[in-house]
TrEMBL record:
Natural source organism: Arnebia euchroma (Pink arnebia)
Cofactor list: heme
Pathway in which this enzyme or protein is active: Hormone biosynthesis; Plant hormone biosynthesis; gibberellin biosynthesis
Job of this protein: Catalyzes three successive oxidations of ent-kaurenoic acid giving gibberellin 12 (GA12), a key step in gibberellins (GAs) biosynthesis. GAs, which are involved many processes, including stem elongation, play a central role in plant development.
Name by which UniProt lists this protein: Cytochrome P450
SUPFAM superfamilies cross-referenced by the UniProt entry: Cytochrome P450 (SSF48264)
Location of the protein in the cell: Membrane
Length: 497
């Protein structure tokens, strides 16, 4: 009798929970789809989807998926419930949104500047900076991008940085091989941070670089978190990190201005000089806030992706000896064809690394460092037969495109050879985004990765402490132990390579 009573009570509780859940989700759906849009019939063609719970929407299910071993279960749940539609309405990061998962829809959202603009969450804007590329207008972005892209892209710029990158890569690998256990990812991030610091600020003390890199690590955990400014939450910690970063950069800007005031004829040599000299057609120069936000953005983007992709390319090559052997053979062939008098790599040699380029592209596809970018509808827009209301966010879900089996057969397999003769169609390969807001440092990132892999493949191997270490997916995919292991030299060190 007691067992039957307990069972009945349990069923009542479950039924009550299901009813409350249905009521709350229905209220949330009504509020954003009917009330906020005024019940206008033109919105009858909204994509299918789920607006989730009041206030938090689908954030909990998103976070649960990306903190599990199967982050793609989040999108899979939409596909299972609503079919292969490619667009799904949802409520995330504090806004009604539409997730787009097909090449056609992604291309449209990224390239149509008439209908869409950047739509990053409040947390990202506050942390990276409202005066950075993600927060400024189209015209301001166009001007600043043109100003800052040339020093990090193009043959002249890349050739200028090659020697410096080579030197610190050679030095780092030599140091790591005699250090013992290291966190491979952490050391790579320091390496790539040193490179981007050199480009923007020429040089800073090791103490300053360590302090900046440390704060960036904290900052990144809050960039795609909910904007909850309460102790213990990632966003709260990230805001504190940003304040420290701004204070450090302000000191650097002040010192540089003072130095230039005392020696106005000093040769201009880095991005900081360019930013300080820049003025628009009306003679207005960038103020400190604008310069600092550009620095915060570039120094963050300029080392995070390069460090992570370099680590994953190294791990994936070692996991597949046949690909490792082929990549190494290509590097050895480059050495064999090199004139005896030549010291170090040339840009021409980098461009001959055809197989290594495929390794990098395959790593970029499989890892998908930035799994999503944010846009916002500037007006009611139609994509693939659906309406996206003005003001709604558009979540361009790169991860779905890069792991689509119809585009890339066996998409979760690492296979550089899939790129043999493959010219990706528009919208199918988006590691650096697309359109006018495409990452301006993509060429520099590939150069860094290529130089590192060249020397690693020729002379070193990585011995991991834990080959089955779990992977974390937020803020970016990485082994939980930051790839703890040892770098071992496997052939005589080649100073002249």
């Amino acid at each position: 009798m007691d067992l039957k009573l307990n069972w009945n009570i349990l069923m009542v509780i479950l039924a009550g929970f299901v009813t409350i859940k249905w009521v709350l989700k229905s209220i949330n759906l009504w509020y954003y789809e009917k009330y906020k849009l005024g019940g206008d019939k033109k919105y009858s063609l909204l994509p299918p989807g789920d607006m989730g719970w009041p206030l938090i929407g689908n954030m909990w299910s998103f976070l649960l998926a990306f903190k599990s071993s199967n982050p793609d279960s989040f999108i899979s749940s939409f596909v299972t419930r609503f079919g292969q539609k490619g667009l799904y309405k949802t409520f995330m990061f504090g806004h009604p949104s539409v997730i787009v998962t097909t090449p056609e829809a992604c291309k449209r959202a990224l390239t149509d500047d008439e209908d869409f603009k950047p739509g990053w969450p409040r947390s990202t804007l506050e942390l990276i900076g409202r005066k950075s590329f993600i927060g400024i207008t189209y015209d301001e972005h166009k001007r600043l991008r043109k100003l800052t892209a040339s020093p990090v892209n193009g043959q002249a710029a890349l050739s200028m940085y090659m020697k410096y990158i080579e030197e610190i890569v050679i030095s780092a690998l030599e140091k790591w091989s005699s250090t013992g256990k290291i966190e491979f990812l952490s050391e790579l991030r320091k390496l790539t941070f040193k490179i981007i610091m050199y480009i923007f600020l020429s040089s800073e003390s090791e103490h300053v670089m360590d302090a900046l890199e440390r704060e960036y690590s904290i900052l990144n955990y809050g960039v795609r978190a909910m904007a909850i400014n309460i102790p213990g939450f990632a966003y709260y910690k990230a805001l504190k990190a940003r304040k420290k970063l701004v204070a450090i950069f302000q000191c650097i800007v002040d010192e540089r201005r003072e130095k230039r005031r005392k020696s106005p004829t000093t040769e201009k040599k880095d991005m900081m000089d360019i930013l300080l000299d820049e003025e628009d057609e009306n003679g207005r120069k960038l103020n400190d806030e604008e310069i600092i936000d550009v620095l915060v953005m570039y120094l963050n983007a300029g080392h995070e992706s390069s460090g992570h992709i370099t680590m994953w390319a190294t791990l994936l090559l070692q996991k597949h000896p046949e690909f490792f052997k082929r990549a190494k053979a290509e590097q050895e062939e480059i050495l064999m064809k090199r004139p005896p008098s030549q010291v170090g790599l040339t840009l021409k040699e980098i461009r001959k690394m055809e197989y290594l380029s495929k390794v990098i592209d395959e790593t970029l596809r499989l890892v998908t460092f930035s799994f999503v970018v944010f846009r916002e509808a500037k007006r009611d827009a139609r994509i693939c037969g659906y309406t996206i209301p003005k003001g709604w966010k558009v979540l361009v879900w790169f991860r779905s495109v890069h792991l689509d089996p119809e585009i890339y057969p066996s998409p979760k397999e690492f296979n550089p050879s899939r790129w043999d003769g493959l010219a990706p169609k528009a919208g199918t390969f988006l590691p650096f985004g697309g359109g006018s807001r495409m990452c301006p440092g993509n060429d520099l990132a590939k150069l860094e990765i290529s130089i590192f892999l060249h020397y690693f493949l020729l002379n070193y191997e990585l011995e991991r402490e834990n080959n089955v270490c779990p992977v974390m997916y937020l803020p970016h995919s990485r082994p939980k132990d930051n790839c703890l292991g040892r770098i071992r030299r496997v052939s005589p060190y080649r100073v002249n390579t």
